[in-house]
Hints:
By secondary structure, this protein is an alpha/beta fold. Helix content is 41%, strand content 17%. It has a six-stranded parallel beta sheet, sandwiched between helices. Strand 3 (91-94), helix 6 and strand 4 form a beta-alpha-beta unit.
Amino acid sequence: xxxxxxxxxxxxxxxxxxxxxxxxxxxxxxxxxxxxxxxxxxxxxxxxxxxxxxxxxxxxxxxxxxxxxxxxxxxxxxxxxxxxxxxxxxxxxxxxxxxxxxxxxxxxxxxxxxxxxxxxxxxxxxxxxxxxxxxxxxxxxxxxxxxxxxxxxxxxxxxxxxxxxxxxxxxxxxxxxxxxxxxxxxxxxxxxxxxxxxxxxxxxxxxxxxxxxxxxxxxxxxxxxxxxxxxxxxxxxxxxxxxxxxxxxxxxxxxxxxxxxxxxxxxxxxxxxxxxxxxxxxxxxxxxxxxxxxxxxxxxxxxxxxxxxxxx
Length: 312
């Protein structure tokens, strides 16, 4: 009988059960939504995103579940409507700003949600790192090497002119740098860099190096910024680390292969993705309102050849 049914289906070019009908029957969409902080084109160029997505793939290996990407847009209300209409069983919020309309739209659906990195204080399960502590450790490293004028290449603190879409990650890292540098902290040496790319970081570093009293070290909020700082130093004839120490953040693939290899803060991007997907699928399977839980993953300052004691 089974053979006859399959032969009849093949003869009729029947593709199988309609997924919409299946959703109505089971009450499940068979997919989870991933809400990005940036537009999709940027996410495919960000070197940390592949590791995070690889982690999500690991967390979904045992589940017959699809993944729907929900990027940011300059039309935020339209992006929120996409969230409201998305055929998913739950959401992962990946490094999104405070007061993002997409977050409100996701919460309003009362589906399971896991937040990664930011916003802090979300009323959902949370996976991230101690951004302030990691940044403080990086700054303390430079202070221990005797550096007293330290430049900072920072992400933007908000995504809108009014400051409502605040990025907790940036705020926390800036506070960590300030705490770690102590009396050496100088807000006049902070440069906001956007996007997360080498060229704007190179330009910001050249500006810092042209000051009457240029910094002897730079803290970069990403390895990509640090690469840009290395390019600026080479262009200006400044030797690294003899004349300028540079510390990155992330420990992506480029850090170890930079010239010189970068001192940087290593963080577990892949584990973030794996744990977020695992938690979300568990909450979807239970079908109950998930409990608020938090996992702060460890970071490590990896000291390589881009930092050295300040010349006296």
